[in-house]
Specification:
single chain; 168 residues; 6 helices; 8 strands; globular
Length: 168
């Protein structure tokens, strides 16, 4: 039997003007998505207004208002894990080249699939990483997910092994 690795997706409800807008238009749920390569919750990868970012949500927990969160853990094959890890490391090594896609959010809201070179928003980035793993099968184009729109699909994935509420 092949060794299994863990990939985790963290959805959070953040509080900012833009996050509040996303909250209102996407069903009043989660407003940010990030992905981790283990179950320690120390290091997550995502996109914010500055571009590609490495997040450490546990370190900020005490300095921000309590955030609503849910974390989905997936058991993936070692090959799937290595695919995602390789992609994330490429983003990290070249993070100055990537930008946040404001236009992408707008097109997502209009349900227009798109792809801009080196531009992502948080949930699009997470969707791309999940698709790259080959273990998680998403029904829509990766550019058509806002964070709150992951919930139903992630809960139905056969490789889902654990769901943690208010993980951070």
């Amino acid at each position: 039997m092949q060794n299994k690795k863990t990939v985790a997706v963290l959805l959070t409800r953040q509080h900012s003007i833009f996050s509040n807008f996303i909250y209102m238009i996407s069903g009043r749920g989660y407003t940010h998505a990030s992905i981790a390569l283990d179950s320690t919750y120390d290091c997550f990868y995502s996109f914010n207004f500055k571009g590609f970012c490495i997040e450490r949500p546990r370190r900020r927990k005490h300095t921000q208002r309590q955030r609503k969160s849910i974390c989905y853990q997936f058991d993936v094959s070692e090959a799937a894990y290595e695919n995602v890890k390789k992609l994330i490391l490429e983003f990290a090594d070249n993070q100055n080249e990537y930008q946040y896609s404001r236009l992408g959010i707008f097109l997502c809201m209009l349900r227009i699939p798109h792809r801009f070179r080196k531009q992502y928003f948080c949930s699009q980035f997470v969707a791309e990483m999940l698709s790259a793993s080959g273990a998680v099968r998403l029904k829509r184009h990766t550019s058509l997910y806002l964070p709150n729109q992951f919930v139903k699909e992630l809960e139905c994935q056969p490789c889902l092994c654990r769901v943690l509420y208010n993980a951070v």
